[in-house]
Amino acid sequence: MTYFLFATGIENSDPTIDGGRIRRDQMAECGHYNRWREDFALVQDIGCNFLRIGPALHSTLLGPGRHDWAYADQAFAELRRLRIVPIVDLCHFGVPDWIGDFQNPDFPALFAAYTRAFAERFPWVQLYTPVNEMFITAVFSARYGWWNEQLATDRGFVTALKHLVRANILAMEAILEVRPDALFIQSESSEYFHADSPAAIGPAEIRNAERFLSLDLNYGRRVDSGMYQYLLDNGMTRDEYDFFLRHRLKRWCIMGNDYYVTNEHLVSADGRTRASGEIFGYATITRQYHDRYLLPVMHTETNLQEGPTGEEAVLWLWKQWANVLRVRNDGVPVVGFTWYSLTDQVDWDVALREKRGRANPLGLYDLDRRIRRVGTAYRKLIADWRDVLPAQSLCLQVPVLMPVDQDCWPPGEGPPAN
């Protein structure tokens, strides 16, 4: 039996701002900690069979080998009872105060130990996103100077990136030792940079090479010569680079890619970037990523702010779905789609950089848990398409939650049997 992964998510970003003095815990700010049972019932109501969710790293990992599982124990027991399959997101933009930030070279090993502890505590979980949006985390923390270490240097960016990707790889290995048939959905931002003039072609080419760095390193793919020089010039050692080439975990991976209206950019001759809005769109950019990595694909995040009529978000939903069907019909193995997140979010209009407490109407439900028009539209989309899609999805071996189809991976291409 095969499944298309219709998903939503519980927004669990938790970076720090203001020099580490303010923690932006979105599960707290969006009311999830007080309403998690209600939230899971809404996931069922909308018809989603998969949910991106994870316990906040900063409040769960208290120290080396020390954990507070209070939220996770209750929440994951309820998900299992409701037969909602979690895609477990273990690091979403932030780390505990005692680790500091993504410049800390101890982070990868500490995080891997934490993921092993999670997998041992919840052995029935199969689907993971160990580190969410590695590229965006490094850009916002160490190139734009917005979060966590708040650096704005190439060396800071490369340091954050190599630690994030190493953490992701070590986490995958640790989880596989506990659950050999685990699958990893790398939720990563799919970007494109357009030159705004002939003089900007060179800077745009650099940015379009950089956008692949996190996944190139994660999948053990050799970067191009310009990016290799850039990495070494900014602090990556040859041994560190060789670490990424030695680790080949692609066979356990699904390339999750996120697409928002902000994912395409205009580049000026001086290298500065600004938003371009949607030009190529999800289908074109996804084919670029798929051609590079040749992996199954899942659309792991999208949303659009609801406008005065509520139809703007509905039209965006249908546009994204049409793009998913387009690439799927062109032969790209798209296995899932996600509207992110279940509820509205807080202060994402300023990328969490300022604590304003402003609700952003991006969810399937508002913060009072009233369904939005896009929520009604998504529920209908799922109901209409759930049993219509071609059976080219992936094999999911989740005990209790769903049956096993041993034939849904080509020979030698899927995870090993237990």
Automatic annotation (TrEMBL):
InterPro entries: GH, Glyco_hydro_1. Gene3D superfamilies: Glycosidases. The keyword Transcription regulation does not apply. Keywords: Hydrolase. SUPFAM superfamilies: (Trans)glycosidases. It comes from the Bacteria. One of its GO terms (biological process) is carbohydrate metabolic process. One of its GO terms (molecular function) is hydrolase activity, hydrolyzing O-glycosyl compounds. It holds the Pfam family Glyco_hydro_1. The keyword ATP-binding does not apply. This is Glycosyl hydrolase family protein. It comes from Dankookia rubra.
